[in-house]
Amino acid sequence: MNGTWDSLLPGDCANLDGSSSFFTVDGVNAELQRRCNVLDIHPTGALWGTGALQSTGDVAEQEKSIGNCFPEFCDGLANARIQQTRRGLRLTVRDLTWEQNSDTLWLRFYLTRGAFATAVLREIANYEELDTI
Q1: 126 pLDDT more than 90
Q2: Fewest CB atoms within 10 Å of the CB: 65, 94, 102, 133?
Q3: Would you kindly state where each structural domain of the chain is located, as residue ranges?
Q4: DSSP track, 40-99
Q5: Is 133 a residue whose pLDDT tops 70?
Q6: Distance in angstroms (rounded) separating the CA atoms of residues 43 and 31
Q7: Dihedrals φ, ψ of 99, to 5°?
Q8: pTM (2 decimals)?
Q9: Under a CB-based contact definition with an 8 Å cutoff, are residues 92 and 38 in contact?
Q10: Helix (H, G, I), strand (E, B) or coil at 18
Q11: In terms of CATH, what superfamily is 13-88?
Q12: What is residue 1's predicted lDDT score, i.e. its pLDDT?
């Protein structure tokens, strides 16, 4: 929304790479920025449900603003008693190798828990959606 998805901001929650753990960022110092730059920690976004936002300040206000655009969705998750949590806004693709033979491209890579290969493929593939009847 404002181009800060890959930067830590005061009030954000940072996700530890490869885990579902996160912590609130009160202020961004050089060490936190370095860890973010080397993909050791990642900015997060809210996954809606019951409970309060873990983010604070301007980050919380922005997340509330986004949630207010989708009240039925947010209310539905809360009514289903889904617990609100956070998810990293980036994922690390590790040990990427590729091999091509004939008309087939084979990709091999490792993703941490909670990451989806389809999301990686969507970002690297050039494709057109076909109209279906």
Answers
A1: no
A2: 133
A3: 13-88, 94-124
A4: SEEEEEEE-SBS--S--HHHHHHHHHHHHT-HHHHHHHHHTTPBPEEEES----EEEEEE
A5: no
A6: 14
A7: -150, 135
A8: 0.79
A9: no
A10: coil
A11: TruD, insertion domain (3.30.2340.10)
A12: 58
Specify the 3-state DSSP secondary structure of 110.
strand
CA separation for the pair 1, 106 (Å, rounded) = 34
Percent of the chain with pLDDT over 90: 69
Residues 6+ apart with CB under 8 A from 39: 17, 90, 92
- pLDDT tier at 11 (50, 70, 90 boundaries)? very high
* Residue owning tokens 């960022």: 25
pLDDT digits (tens, 9 = 90+) for 73-113: 999 999 999 999 999 999 899 999 999 998 898 999 999 87
The answer to whether 44 touches 89, Cβ cutoff 8 Å, is: yes
